Amino acid sequence: MSRKALILVSLLAALALFAACTVTPAGAPAAAPEAAAPANEKLVVFGAYATAIEEPWDGVIHAALHKAMEAAALDYTYTDDIGYAGDMERVLQEVAEK
Q1: Backbone angles phi, psi at 48, to 5 degrees
Q2: Cβ neighbours of residue 1 under 8 Å, at least 6 residues apart?
Q3: Minimal CA–CA distance to 48: which of 98, 84, 97?
Q4: pLDDT, tens digit, 9 for 90 and up, residues 18-60
Q5: Of 45, 46, 52, nearest to 82 (Cα)?
Q6: Dist. CA 79–CA 51, nearest whole Å
Q7: With the C-alpha atoms ordered 59, 65, 69, 74, is the resulting torsion angle positive or negative?
Q8: Which residues have a Cβ under 8 Å from the Cβ of 51 and sit 6 or more positions away?
Q9: Residue among 74, 70, 68, 77 nearest 95 (CA)
Q10: Is this model's pTM higher than 0.70 or not?
Q11: Per-residue exposure over 17-36, b if at least 16 CB sit within 10 Å of its own CB, e if not
Q12: Contact (Cβ atoms closer than 8 angstroms) between residue 50 and residue 88
C-alpha cells in the first residue's frame, strides 16, 4: 500500500472514530427508560457482603439501605460474612431463585 493511501485510510478511520464520539445536542430528547416500575411497588434490595457488616464499606452501605428501608422506600435484606471461597455464588443463586 502506498504511503498516501495509508495516510488517507488512517485519516478516514480517525474521522469515523471522532464522528462516533459526538455529544447529543442540548435540545435533543433523551432516550426514555424501557420499563419503569409501578409507583406503588417497593424496590427489593438484597445485600450480599463478603465481610462482616461491621467493616467500614459494608457498614456504610448497610446503614444507608437500612435508613431507606425505614423511610418505606424499599425492602432490604442482607447476608454478611459470606467470604470469597465460592459461597458468594451459592448465596446469590439461592436469593435469585426466590
Answers
A1: -115, 105
A2: 9
A3: 84
A4: 666 766 666 666 666 666 656 678 889 999 999 999 999 999 9
A5: 52
A6: 10
A7: negative
A8: 58, 80, 81
A9: 77
A10: no
A11: eeeeeeeeeeeeeeeeeeee
A12: yes
Whether the pLDDT of residue 84 is over 60: the answer is: yes
Note whether 35 and 26 are within 8 A (CB): no
pLDDT at 98: 83
36: amino acid identity, one letter? A
**For residue 25, which phi and psi values (nearest 5 degrees)?**
-60, 155
Name the grid cell of 5.
493511501
Which cell goes with 93?
443463586
As a residue count, the chain comes to 98
C-alpha cell, 75? 425492602
CA angle in degrees (0–180, nearest 5) for 72-52-61: 35
